[in-house]
Amino acid sequence: MMNIKNQFARKLMEIKAIKLQPNDPFTWASGWKSPIYTDNRKTLGYPEVRSFVKLELCHAIQEYFPEAEAVAGVATGAIAQGALVADELGLPYCYVRPKPKDHGMGNQVEGEIKQGTKVVVVEDLISTGGSSLKAVEALRQYGVEVVGMVASFTYGFPVAEEAFAAAGVKLITLSNYEAVVEEAAKTGYIKDEDKAVLAEWRKNPGTWGVKS
């Protein structure tokens, strides 16, 4: 039976939430050239996939963070999935903005969670980990205890793994880059020779594809 990581990787490619173009790379907002593009928000438009993500994130929380008393979603990509997860688990919910609002109450954490509450964070995508860990820091400043994070997908960059370790945040993901490459090769989405290109990008994503 296919494991969850590979099963979800295949689902993401089937709905084109993940696209691979080793020979025609995308340009990320950061300016990085990349053979992969990920938009997990597409899962919301497919009820079967949306439910799969919700339930598997819930299972991950129950297995790895059973002490969680509330759920926090990271804006904007994980707001909806975080709310679905909190509803399924019957837990309080809030979401975290990238920065405080510049009007009204100036909130960065939207919702109401009691101080000292044990919170699990829901994220959709982990790249370098920077924005995800900013959300964690905002929650800590808000006065809650972050017990860990669950996410739909990670590229598995070493810089992200180091950042999560330094921040003391345990990260559990439903799928990852290796599973996508494996499933893409199995289904003929990519050629065998493309695997080396994809592996090379993951080693040095910031400089990959840049002409000297």
Q: What would you note in describing this structure?
A:
The protein has 212 residues and is α/β, with parallel strands linked by helices. It has helices at residues 4-14, 47-64, 79-89, 130-142, 158-167, 177-186, 194-203, and strands at residues 18-20, 26-27, 33-34, 36-38, 70-74, 93-96, 109-111, 118-126, 145-154, 171-176. A 6-stranded mixed sheet has the order 7-6-5-8-9-10, sandwiched between helices. A two-stranded antiparallel sheet has the order 1-4. The radius of gyration is 17 Å and the shape is globular.
Relevant terms:
alpha/beta; 10 strands; about 210 residues
| Cα shape | globular
* Mean pLDDT value: 93
What's the gyration radius in Å? 17 Å
Structural class: alpha/beta
Please report the number of helical segments.
Answer: 7
Which band does the percent of strand residues land in? 15-25%
How far apart lie the N and C ends?
A: 45 Å
Largest sheet: 6 strands, mixed
Q: Give the low-confidence spans.
A: none
Q: In total, how many beta strands?
A: 10
Order of helices and strands: HEEEEHEHEEEHEHEHH
What proportion of the residues is helical, as a percent range?
Answer: 25-40%
Strand order of the largest sheet: 7-6-5-8-9-10
